[in-house]
Amino acid sequence: MESKNRTVITEFILLGLTQSRDIQLLVFVLVLIFYFIILPGNFLIIFTIRSDPGLTAPLYFFLGNLAFLDASYSFIVAPRMLVDFLSEKKVISYRGCITQLFFLHFLGGGEGLLLVVMAFDRYIAICRPLHYSTVMNPRACYAMLLALWLGGFVHSIIQVVFILRLPFCGPNQLDNFFCDVPQVIKLACTNTFVVELLMVFNSGLMTLLCFLGLLASYAVILCRIRGSSSEAKNKAMSTCTTHIIVIVFMFGPGIFIYTRPFRAFPADKVVSLFHTVIFPLLNPVIYTLRNQEVKASMKKVFNKHIA
Predict the structure, then answer these.
(1) G-protein coupled receptors family 1 profile domain: which residues (predicted)?
(2) Rg (Cα) of the chain, in Å, rounded?
(3) Is-contact 39 71, C-beta < 8 A?
(4) Among 1.20.1070.10, 3.30.930.10, 2.40.50.90, 3.50.30.10, what is the CATH number of 11-298?
(5) Do 179 and 92 form a contact (C-beta atoms < 8 A)?
(6) pTM
(7) Which of 45, 124, 169, 224 is deepest in the core (most CB within 10 A)?
(8) pLDDT, tens digit, for every residue of 184-231?
């Protein structure tokens, strides 16, 4: 009888980033400016790589996909967050919440695997240069791209399946500005200890292992290039340093959020803001600013269309 009298939750109320209207307005303006400056830059990167015949190497193929993934990722949270800043009541339906959560982890998981693929590409290029054209042929690149999309889907669908099996019948206030696993699970009207452990294993452990594996791979690469010529060494160092910066941006917040029990910390919302809105837009730009070939090609494309 108790289960029959339970009210089924059909929507969630988002408490937002902060309750201060002044801080909300400040963040709204900053994110809006950032969004409309950096996002076109990501699309310019994609257009440049696709239109320039000189940028056909696997590195640029994966960089274009990174820009696409990050641009898509930024559409999951940022637009709704900006609209909610202007709304008194921030409500998202149950289905909308699950959909947002799915795409968040689908694209996020895919991007994490893409960074692994990009690290593998740099390892082969620097440590096994004679085998590079054989290993990183177009068919292998497309196969790896398909694998990382499939990996992101499997990672995300596991999260969704576990959450869909949970009953939601009590409080419906999410203490965040978007739907994510830690906050949603806490609203389930059942014991979620086992589910939390499974989620930590699926998200947290995978994120941590990828992060440590990537750092180890770049450490090996940096050790291998110590004896290279000055020009080759500087170019490899610049590429690896850029990759490491993006890896820290990508995995650092994820480790903070997902590798611990789902308890709220004061810094959670700020970390989530950078993880879901700021860093995804910055990642391809960071890669591009350190890559002379892409910068030169972007200038040519820009000058051609301006003229």
Answers:
(1) 41-287
(2) 21
(3) yes
(4) 1.20.1070.10
(5) yes
(6) 0.88
(7) 45
(8) 998 998 888 888 888 888 888 889 999 998 998 888 888 887 766 666
Q: What's the token pair of residue 204?
A: 């947290």
Tokens of 157: 């669908």
Half-sphere exposure of 137 (CA within 13 A, CB side): 4
Residue with tokens 């960071």: 286
Of 236, 243, 223, 55, the residue nearest 129 (C-alpha): 236
Tell me, what amino acid is at 116?
A: V
Estimate to the nearest angstrom the gap between the alpha carbon of 271 and the chain centroid. 13
Contact 144, 116 (CB under 8 A): no
CB 7 within 8 A of CB 25: no
d(CA 110, CA 289): 23
Q: Are the C-beta atoms of 155 and 105 separated by less than 8 Å?
A: yes
For 10, the enclosing helix (H) or strand (E) is none
Strand order in the sheet with 91-93: 91-93, 11-14, 173-174
Distance of CA 103 to the CA centre of its chain: 11
